[in-house]
Design a protein that fits this description.
Layout lengths: L10 H14 L5 E7 L13 E8 L16 H10 L1 E2 L2 E2 H14 L5 H13 L4 H7 L20 E5 L1
Antiparallel strand pairs: 1-2, 2-5, 3-4
Helix pairs in contact: 2-4, 3-4
């Protein structure tokens, strides 16, 4: 599931948007075109609301994805996330924003929460600042969509 964004304004705007996305999503190793359905319309008999939606995915292929850590203990993953950064920012900020966004749409994932809390333990920050980084306590039940240490994130864009 995800959000789809439509680029309007003709070929020039599309080209600019794709250049931006290619830069922002620079660490992906698979770009796929998919059909996009509404949340209530996911049966094979229904028609997609959009076709040709571009999905950027980082796969667990260590040859094409140099940053894939592979199956690892939570602490090792947290250390990598706490210290990794790329052209668009640091990895921990991405994780914290993901955690907050999932909380905002009441679709929390206990694995994301656990990983974010482990990353917070590895940050070299005063105790008072770490306390500010803790997520708001959820008033909704946690729905887990991850299995053990397998976890896929996708961003969805319409072409």
């Amino acid at each position: 599931w995800g959000a789809a964004y439509c680029v309007r304004g003709g070929p020039e705007k599309e080209k600019l948007a794709m250049e931006y996305l290619e830069g922002r999503e620079c660490e992906y190793d698979l770009k796929t075109l998919v059909e996009f359905y509404t949340e209530t319309d996911t049966t094979k008999q229904s028609k997609p609301i959009l076709t040709g939606v571009i999905v950027f995915t980082s796969t667990p292929d260590k040859l094409s994805n140099k940053y894939y850590l592979g199956p690892a203990p939570m602490e090792e993953m947290a250390m990598q996330i706490a210290t990794a950064s790329g052209p668009c920012g640091n990895n921990r900020e991405y994780l914290f924003k993901l955690e907050k966004a999932m909380h905002g749409i009441e679709h929390e994932d206990e694995y994301v929460i656990e990983l974010a809390n482990e990353v917070r333990k590895h940050l070299d920050l005063p105790k008072e600042v770490k306390a500010l980084l803790k997520p708001v306590v959820s008033r909704v039940s946690i729905k887990s969509h991850s299995q053990a240490h397998v976890f896929t994130l996708q961003r969805v864009f319409a072409s």
